[in-house]
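Why do we bother with holo predictions? Because pocket geometry can differ from the apo form. Keep that in mind while you read this record for beta-D-galactopyranose.
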Amino acid sequence: MTVGVCYFPEHWPRERWERDVEQMAEAGFSYVRMAEFSWSRIEPEPGEIELSWLEEAVSLIGDHGMEAVLCTPTATPPKWLVDKEPGILQEEPDGTTRQYGSRRHYCFNSPEYREQTRRIVSVMAERFADNPHVAGWQTDNEYGCHETIRCWCDDCAAAFREWLSDAYGDVESLNEAWGTTFWSQHLRSFDEVDPPRHTAAEHHPSRLLDYYRFSAESAVDYNAIHTELLREANDDWFVAHNFMGDFDSCDVYRFADDLDLITWDSYPTGFAQDRRPGAASADELRAGDPDQVGMNHDLYRGAKQQPFWVMEQQPGDVNWPPYAPQPGEGAMRLWAHHAVAHGADEVLYFRWRRCREGQEQYHAGLRKQDGSPDRGYRDADRTATELAELDLDPVDADVAVLHDYDNLWATSIQPHAPDWEYWTHMRQYYAALRARSVQADVVHPDWDLSGYDAIVAPALHLVDEELAGALESRVEDGAELLLTVRSGAKDTSNKLPDVPAPGPLADLVGATVDQHESVPEQLDRRVSYDGETYGYRTFAEWLAPDGATAVGSHVGGVGDGRAAVTEHEFGAGHVTYCGVWPESGLADAVVADMLERADVPHSERLPTGVRATQRDGYTWVTNFTSDPVAVTVPDDARWLVGGETVGAFDAAVYEGAAADLSLDQR
Ligand code: GAL
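The structure, written out:
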């Protein structure tokens, strides 16, 4: 387990590099990532390649016992290239061009850009093919950042028509799948389909869903240009990409087969502010939400079922969220431990030094702009020493949480409530598992689920017979399954089937959805479950049991007394259907009952912000709050890092099971 850093040698005078690299080595770093935005330095004039500076930086890194991770520089095509090929630029739905001047301004479907990509990637791959200090590559940088997965240009229009023709074969099949009789949308040929550009009212939901799928796959196709050329040059290299947190449009599962390593970029205090409804708490402003960050760790681990890397770890205050508070003392160390507990094998901090120019001057580095150590450096240095002691097996989870971008897209296309949000709904159940110290793999529903004792499937919206059959056989064999609102409501074309929800899941659930409603705060939002009354939010269903038992009911409102939660014995397992978006107390009660039935070891319910996470026989206690916690562990547990008192924003590690600890927050 090691720590590394992202470095931009091109931002600093050559005389400084040696000192920088020495200091990285002194801190015990292993990998240094470079070059992701350096095209204009690599090719200052068309066809004039200058790579000797990067070779020098790589040699220095190698001389100091570290390895380089290089990036293809395609996230920032230089000005001369944009002027030469203006067609590479992306377009908004209203036809506005996304101009040169920031980054990610190219279209994945531009034939000219694909050609230029082949050229620059080949040049770099060939130059470094025999370099012993390059361990692997990152393709491009954060596909889709700044909402750039989707583009509405003419190249995308042509590619979309081709994609539809491959998917449907003939246009009548498309008309049938989408349902184009509505609002006179019948199509006579694929040529009549455009990208969903600016319109008076909303677009057809089936067309939008296919456009989202097509756009995600365009990025995957584009990425394959990089992976092929890099592997051709040296197939010992790993090829990775750096994905983002709670990110809607870029589907990591579609990339998984073509990448050797999944990595992501973790900025906890930014995410707590800019991609979650509601205000961040004081502690979250200092350290983020461990379940928000943790769920992304588990997603990027689950996507390939293997250890992942954090390619960019927040190093201190950052420039892009609404506010940029200083992280809590020690938070940069806490985040790295938390990542390792969730299955990361490597954590690289972004960036080495605060930048003196350009858009990110208000973003910390591990070192200040004068080269002196900043708060993050001290944390990273300590973390590198602590992690160097550990050699860990991958995470082994008993529980799967099913996650699917198609469900995210379909429910966000028709949210049916202003505060419907797929990640947040999913996280309500995920947080209940995490509060009970249970490791969960976040996986796609098509994944082989045979290794899991319990499966949680939040808003499993688009369901076909095949998926229903796979879940049925898993439950028949003894798994516990928890389904939630909106499950089985639509087919995979984003259309209602001719039976009520949960559609093909009805036999398994032993109930159907009689009514659904979305509910603002002014209306009654209460249910009873196991003798207690709980609140819920946003979305509710009235269930009609048919074989299942109603174990929870609506209290008050027009649905008073109707079933809200059902339980159904099916073969050797059970299915719980929770027909409301539960408050955390209800999510905990339902999840804890499921864990009991599944015989999955779990702890007492931990307080918000404190988590215990088990990997390879070790447990990390991570405290994302400003209050110390006292931890009681079994007598034979051995502390490796820290001890019984885990301070504010602190992490401790013991050898022993997470399920066995108890906590007292002071
Ligand atoms: C990431 C990006 C980096 C840098 C960083 C700032 O999203 O990959 O290049 O912009 O954010 O926090």
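The chain has a mean pLDDT of 97.
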